[in-house]
Amino acid sequence: MESDRDVEKTYLVSDFIAELRRLADALESGEPFVIEIDGEEISVPLSAAISVEHERENGSEELEFQLKWGDVEAGDEFAENDEVSEGDDLATA
User: Fold this and answer.
1) pLDDT higher than 70, residue 38
2) Using CA atoms, how far apart are residues 23 and 37, in angstroms rounded to an integer?
3) Kind and range of the H or E element at 34?
4) Which candidate, 84, 25, 22, places its Cα nearest to that of 51?
5) Is the dihedral of CA 44, 47, 51, 57 positive or negative?
6) What digits encode the pLDDT tens for the residues 4-37?
7) What is the distance in angstroms between the CA of the first residue and the CA of the last residue of the chain?
8) Which of 16, 72, 73, 78 is disulfide-compatible with 11, CB 3.0–4.6 A?
């Protein structure tokens, strides 16, 4: 069993753009996305649930693009054919 891990990696804007582009290309082509973070290669399966999270607290804001897989709790998964409500339009996020 793999050990718990919570690692955050900071990118230069140009590197972040390149990773987002690679992610979009993988999703579009139906291939898993692979990324190396802190010396560990992570392979994100096609079945990963994808979400965007916005947090606001004490004058600070955070926007997270999340991909979850594995032991995802019931109700946390977002299937490809699920409808997105008007308020969930990513273009305005």
Assistant:
1) yes
2) 14
3) strand 33-37
4) 84
5) negative
6) 989 998 999 999 999 999 999 999 999 999 999 9
7) 36
8) 16
